[in-house]
Design brief:
The chain is mostly helical and 99 residues long. The protein is 64% helix and 0% strand. The protein is elongated, with a radius of gyration of 14 Å. It starts with 7 loop residues before the first helix and ends with a helix.
């Protein structure tokens, strides 16, 4: 029995997850990679659009926005960015692995 080919949405999610884990600096790999694994499947298409815009930003700039070292431009103040900044996705992924 042949498998069904992946949908455009599934391909988009795979691509975003890969790009999230392969950023350039390890800190952003961890932040965005865990976010992608934990959150992307539940995002609306418009939120995925916002996420795609964010991951086009250079790592150091995005890291500085997330860490609060630089002011976030208004056009990137989205619910997706707020979720990334909250780091809720990191708590389960990193600190509870020793359980």
């Amino acid at each position: 029995m042949a498998e069904n080919p992946p949908t455009d949405h599934e391909i988009r999610l795979r691509r975003l997850k890969f790009r999230s884990w392969h950023r350039g600096i390890k800190e952003m790999d961890l932040i965005l990679g865990h976010f992608a694994d934990e959150e992307l499947d539940g995002l609306a298409p418009s939120d995925l659009d916002d996420y795609e815009r964010l991951i086009e930003i250079q790592d150091i700039t995005l890291y500085n926005w997330i860490s609060g070292h630089e002011k976030l431009p208004a056009e990137y103040e989205t619910p997706v960015f707020a979720r990334i900044r909250s780091a809720q996705h990191l708590k389960a992924a990193l600190w509870q692995q020793n359980g």
